[in-house]
Amino acid sequence: xxxxxxxxxxxxxxxxxxxxxxxxxxxxxxxxxxxxxxxxxxxxxxxxxxxxxxxxxxxxxxxxxxxxxxxxxxxxxxxxxxxxxxxxxxxxxxxxxxxxxxxxxxxxxxxxxxxxxxxxxxxxxxxxxxxxxxxxxxxxxxxxxxxxxxxxxxxxxxxxxxxxxxxxxxxxxxxxxxxxxxxxxxxxx
Amino acid sequence: xxxxxxxxxxxxxxxxxxxxxxxxxxxxxxxxxxxxxxxxxxxxxxxxxxxxxxxxxxxxxxxxxxxxxxxxxxxxxxxxxxxxxxxxxxxxxxxxxxxxxxxxxxxxxxxxxxxxxxxxxx
Lengths: 189, 122
Known about the structure:
heterodimer; A: alpha/beta; Rossmann fold; seven-stranded mixed β-sheet; 7 helices; globular; B: alpha+beta; four-stranded antiparallel β-sheet
């Protein structure tokens, strides 16, 4: 896969993710990948473009899934979707190799991103890629290793992330925050 | 939704001990052809709940999978082709997934199962 092509197909992906890193660990191609809180499907579709054999997008919001589904059709990619609340998800077995996610942060409910990470580390058998605010780096590392029993937790790179004014309680119009791209290795099953 | 996804989904209603596998009510099933990848199939075979897959395949009208399977079958091209078809090419498009303990139906529309629980089920 043609990283150039990937970039042009998914214009915003560049700032969210680092396809080179994902490729070099062998976590995506020919694997089963789950996109947690998939929204419009960006990360999951990127995984499909990188040759994931089976991609599942999970999101609580029907409208997001509808958009993601349309995006998948436009790109002629196969992607499954499940509408669910990740906090009470029923799941069997070690089939998912890798979880990719851009979990909610900057939202009112603190720690939502860590709830996602906790579930991701239970479900993935090989790797979890996730984005978290750089200011929470120590907390993320400690919690992942100690409470979620990750084998390793590594920051692959630091990114700048534009947060538009989405919620009423956001005081500023738009803020540019530092975000870490993490790769976690789960304890395994 | 592929049957591979079905092989992972479970009902998580409060009080349910074993929500796997979900029964399938199929109203519409579609086939979408994808490239045959035998290495992927060999790799995923030990992780599949075979009984659940066979039941799911039959529920969507596909009867080519044997009742029991063992790794030796992975040498057979026929077996791999059937497994490929069942796991990756058959999609439940319209219907429902049904909790095996409570009978609660999780609707599937446009291929997307809605696994959201009601407030009193959490």
